[in-house]
């Protein structure tokens, strides 16, 4: 086998492996999408039916029972709100740690990340009581605060990695020209790492959109996002798979479409600084 | 600066005025927490009728999975958050929460006709003779079986058989090669899942959860016999992977024609006899839950009820809604919109006396017999200090029942012997009861 043939074979093998992994990851979403067009009887049929007469009945039921737009609006406000606030806090934090590291900077970063290792249920009661005492239960503000704090360690960590890769000489040159710290951040650091900031923001939006634990535990009717709407379709007694799939499809659709449009920025940001 | 102050004053006054005006004409919003059951969905759809009859009251719904609902409601009520005005709670929680002073008694005066409520259901939802949960729907357990398969196998199921006979029939009709399993039973761990069914089997075999001094009896010979019987039967004649089967999984199997016999909640009868979703609707028959050494406690009793937490700020309006949703008039309203076969069952005697309902629901007689025969105050052969058939009405049971269910599920999976599973559950139960100060 010649070197060219070996290279071709390697490309084909890696390509095939990538396709297989992608298909395995995508299959549950595909199956959910397919089930949403089945009747409840078809949804539980064994062997599963791949070819069937599709119905929109489940979507009609979801539309009739749940105020989809209200839940979707809650998801949008909470996800974007939490992401914007988290970025406002994280950008200066990451800037100071990347360009003015102290003795304990690495420890602080690790400590911040370690809070993500704590199981959420472990702090449910204190958070719930704080929410109750400050009137934040079942409010968008309450969830925005929780989601901001929840994603802050990852956002700071990611931004720190992007900022760290920026050449310090550029900042020094800016300082020579009389730039204040504010100008440094807004006019030099942010424009140079815009890809990284966007991808961090996108990741944060996706994490907020998909979060279910706090959404279900801290909301009732007013601030319930789409994840809470999906949960309402699980039934203790009675078949519900098709309706649940329809609700899930509707809940996933906006974020999948959003991710599709932003995939270029997402990939660009996530691979930023990976190859030097 | 002056202009800014003026503008701020104008805007502020307008906002305040708007808020005051809004408050003055605002409706009372009642938040109802519930589960996603067919009957609950009907109630949501019929809510506009209530709102029309009661101008000024609006209803908002929070629907959650059963376990999550229990967690959210306990959190809300124990911490006095007041997020919910009306809660859908079960027969297990109602007396416990009423005892703690967390619930307001239901106003049963006047046209409500409290005596029409099925006595066992009413008792189960009462504390010190006061009703704290208005039953919206009730159920017992019974046998659902494929009469075609039973006849083909030359067997017979009578109105009330012994478990050992049911096992023989399951053996006769079991044909895994054709995808037909003799019997389907709950195997998934949980106090409301496998533990509920196993408790009725234990009761039927003469067992009990606690003796009169609150000492756990999980390692008693009656428990060992009952659980060994359950595990052996399900492993021999049940579907594969039974440890993950609960009501819905068994319902799916039965409706697909894969189960010969299924012992579960009476509500299942309305699903399996519905030709729109069941392939075996015309082949299904019903019988009372099996017994063994005693008929006591061999079929469970459960009810989803509407309760009003003391933290609700709209007590009077919440009472109005609860009375409406659990009234005789509401049942007629459901019948008018969805037909008599779809009305919420297991709550009122008048429903079962209605000829239209009897005609529409082929399972009506069997269901009513099952619910009436279940007695939570006398559910075991030996005396017990507790109330409840498939549960024990003490706060500690939720944990003890779940752990026992997990142990039994492990034994069903073949990872532990029945004796070992029950001994483990006994030790944990003893520790919890001692810690709770029972002895």
TrEMBL record, chain A:
Its main location: membrane. The keyword Transmembrane helix applies. Residues 72-262 form the ABC transmembrane type-1 domain. It is a multi-pass membrane protein. GO terms for cellular component: plasma membrane. CDD domains: TM_PBP2 (cd06261). Keywords: Cell membrane, Membrane, Transmembrane, Transmembrane helix, Transport. Pfam families: BPD_transp_1. The chain crosses the membrane at residues 12-34, 76-96, 108-130, 142-163, 184-206, 240-261. The keyword Transmembrane applies. It is found in: Cell membrane. It comes from the Bacteria. This is Trehalose transport system permease protein SugB. Belongs to the binding-protein-dependent transport system permease family. MalFG subfamily. GO terms for biological process: transmembrane transport.
From TrEMBL, chain B:
Keywords: Signal. Pfam families: SBP_bac_1. Its main location: periplasm. It comes from the Bacteria. It is found in: Periplasm. Residues 1-26 form the signal peptide. Gene3D superfamilies: Periplasmic binding protein-like II. It comes from Marinomonas spartinae. PANTHER family: ARABINOSE-BINDING PROTEIN-RELATED, DIACETYLCHITOBIOSE BINDING PROTEIN DASA. This is Maltose ABC transporter periplasmic protein. GO terms for cellular component: periplasmic space. Belongs to the bacterial solute-binding protein 1 family.
């Amino acid at each position: 086998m010649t070197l060219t043939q070996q290279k071709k074979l390697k490309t084909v093998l890696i390509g095939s492996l990538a396709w297989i992994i992608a298909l395995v990851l995508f299959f549950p979403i595909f199956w959910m999408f397919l089930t949403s067009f089945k009747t409840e009887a078809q949804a539980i049929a064994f062997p599963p039916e791949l070819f069937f007469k599709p119905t929109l009945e489940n979507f009609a039921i979801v539309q009739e029972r749940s105020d989809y737009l209200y839940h979707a609006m809650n998801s949008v406000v909470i996800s974007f709100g939490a992401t914007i606030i988290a970025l406002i806090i994280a950008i200066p934090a990451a800037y100071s740690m990347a360009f003015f590291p102290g003795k304990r900077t690495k420890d602080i970063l690790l400590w911040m990340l370690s809070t993500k290792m704590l199981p959420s249920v472990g702090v449910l009661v204190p958070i719930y009581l704080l929410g109750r005492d400050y009137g934040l239960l079942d409010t968008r503000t309450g969830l925005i605060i929780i989601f901001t704090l929840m994603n802050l360690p990852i956002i700071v960590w990611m931004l720190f990695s992007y900022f760290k890769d920026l050449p310090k000489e550029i900042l020094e040159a800016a300082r020579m020209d009389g730039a204040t710290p504010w100008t440094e951040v807004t006019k030099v650091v942010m424009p140079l790492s815009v890809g990284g900031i966007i991808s961090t923001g996108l990741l944060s939006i996706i994490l907020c959109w998909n979060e279910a634990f706090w959404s279900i535990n801290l909301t009732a009717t007013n601030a319930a996002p789409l994840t809470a709407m999906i949960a309402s379709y699980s039934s203790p007694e009675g078949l519900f798979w098709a309706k649940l799939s329809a609700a899930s499809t509707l809940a996933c659709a906006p974020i999948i479409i959003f991710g599709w449009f932003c995939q270029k920025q997402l990939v660009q940001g996530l691979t930023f600084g990976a190859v030097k | 600066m002056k202009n800014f102050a003026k503008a701020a004053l104008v805007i502020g006054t307008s906002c305040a005025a708007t808020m005051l005006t809004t408050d003055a004409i605002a409706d009372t919003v009642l938040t109802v927490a519930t589960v996603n059951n067919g009957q609950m969905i009907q109630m949501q759809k019929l809510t506009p009728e209530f709102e029309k009859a009661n101008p000024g009251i609006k209803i908002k719904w929070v629907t959650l999975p059963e376990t999550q609902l229990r967690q959210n409601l306990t959190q809300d009520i124990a911490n006095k958050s007041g997020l919910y005005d009306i809660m859908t709670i079960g027969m297990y929680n109602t007396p416990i929460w009423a005892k703690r002073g967390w619930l307001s008694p239901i106003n049963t005066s006047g046209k409500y006709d409290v005596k029409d409520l099925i006595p066992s259901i009413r008792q189960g939802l009462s504390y010190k003779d006061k009703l704290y949960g208005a039953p919206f729907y009730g159920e017992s357990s019974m046998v659902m079986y494929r009469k075609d398969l039973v006849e083909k196998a030359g067997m017979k199921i009578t109105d009330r058989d012994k478990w050992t006979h049911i096992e023989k029939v399951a053996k006769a009709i079991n044909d895994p090669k054709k995808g037909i399993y003799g019997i389907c039973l709950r195997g998934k761990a949980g106090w409301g899942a496998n533990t509920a069914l196993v408790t009725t089997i234990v009761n039927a075999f003469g067992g009990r959860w606690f003796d009169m001094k609150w000492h756990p009896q999980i390692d008693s010979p009656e428990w060992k016999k009952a659980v060994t019987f359950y595990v052996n039967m399900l492993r021999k004649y049940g579907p594969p992977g039974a440890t993950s089967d609960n009501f819905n999984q068994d319902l799916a199997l039965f409706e697909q024609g894969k189960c010969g016999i299924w012992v579960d909640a009476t509500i299942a009868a309305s699903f399996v006899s519905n030709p729109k979703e069941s392939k075996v609707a015309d082949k299904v028959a019903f019988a009372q839950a099996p017994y063994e050494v005693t008929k006591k406690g061999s079929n469970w009793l459960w009810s989803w009820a509407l309760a009003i937490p003391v933290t609700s700020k709209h007590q009077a309006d919440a009472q109005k809604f609860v009375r409406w949703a659990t009234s005789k008039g509401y049942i007629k309203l459901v019948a008018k919109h969805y037909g008599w076969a779809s009305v919420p069952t297991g709550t009122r005697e008048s429903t079962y006396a209605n000829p239209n309902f009897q005609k529409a629901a082929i399972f009506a007689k069997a269901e009513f017999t099952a619910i009436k025969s279940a007695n939570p105050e006398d559910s075991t052969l030996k005396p017990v200090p507790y109330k409840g058939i498939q549960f024990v009405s003490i706060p500690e049971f939720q944990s003890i029942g779940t752990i026992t269910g997990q142990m039994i599920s492990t034994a069903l999976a073949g990872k532990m012997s029945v004796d070992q599973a029950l001994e483990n559950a006994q030790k944990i139960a003893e520790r919890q009861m001692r810690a709770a100060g029972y002895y």
